[in-house]
Specification:
The complex is a heterodimer of chains A (122) and B (111). Chain A has 122 residues and is mainly β. Chain A has no helices and 11 strands. In chain B, 4% of the residues lie in helices and 43% in strands. The chains are: A mainly beta (122), B mainly beta (111).
């Protein structure tokens, strides 16, 4: 059974870069019908999609965050990563990695990691 | 990129049916058969309960059902149970520019 686990610093200073990694276990990241996404949730608020990456390295980012987001994939480690630059307090959130099922007839985030809280503060 | 609109809260007695609406536009909910719903218990990660408007993943009870009419999708919980108390979020594909948009979220309470 595929499982996802986020890892990274829980505290980031304003203006610095937030970096997180998601490790995929129980299955390969090299899959055609799934891409790998990041989603965040500020405290007490709703979910916000950040972007996704295929095993090939192809990426798509949310327009409001596009200028600050970079995602990468390491197929040898079965991991994918998120970098969010120039962070502010508004970037404080629980960050989830999720598997995105993408076919011609289906589209959904079918497996989620447990999430990791990232606080932006000096 | 506006979030899909959901009621802030809905409630019902155990055994009753409750329905959560998710209103979007002709560019997202009304345009694609890619509406999904997620259940989130406090402090937990979201869980997929409905995808492609009305499909249920394996293991999800059949008391959860999804539907859509024009630009509004709906999630119905038939026979509300105490463990269904949670936040629920809809999500829709919105094309190759916006890509994915979530709903504002609805808190379901079993009275």
């Amino acid at each position: 059974q595929v499982q996802l686990q986020e890892s990274g610093p829980g505290l980031v200073k304003p203006s610095e870069t937030l970096s997180l990694t998601c490790t995929v276990s129980g299955g390969s990241i090299n899959t055609y019908y799934w891409s790998w996404s990041w989603i965040r949730q500020p405290p007490g608020k709703g979910l916000e999609w950040i972007g996704y990456i295929f095993y090939s390295g192809t990426t798509t980012y949310s327009p409001p965050l596009k200028s600050r987001v970079t995602m990468s994939v390491d197929t040898s480690k079965n991991q994918f990563s998120l970098n969010l630059s120039s962070v502010t307090a508004a970037d404080t959130a629980v960050y989830y990695c999720a598997r995105l099922l993408m076919t011609s007839s289906s589209f959904a985030f079918d497996i989620w990691g447990l999430g990791t809280m990232v606080t932006v503060s000096s | 990129q506006s979030a899909l609109t959901q009621p802030r809260s809905v409630s019902g007695s155990p055994g009753q049916s409750v329905t959560i609406s998710c209103t979007g536009t002709s560019s997202d909910v009304g345009a694609y058969n890619y509406v999904s719903w997620y259940q989130q218990h406090p402090g937990k990660a979201p869980k997929l309960i409905i995808y492609d408007v009305n499909k249920r993943p394996s293991g999800v009870p059949d008391r959860f059902s999804g539907s859509r009419s024009a630009n509004t999708a709906s999630l119905t919980i038939s026979g509300l149970q105490a463990e269904d108390e949670a936040d629920y979020y809809c999500c829709s594909y919105a094309g190759t520019y916006t890509f994915e948009v979530f709903g504002t979220g609805t808190k379901v309470t079993a009275l």
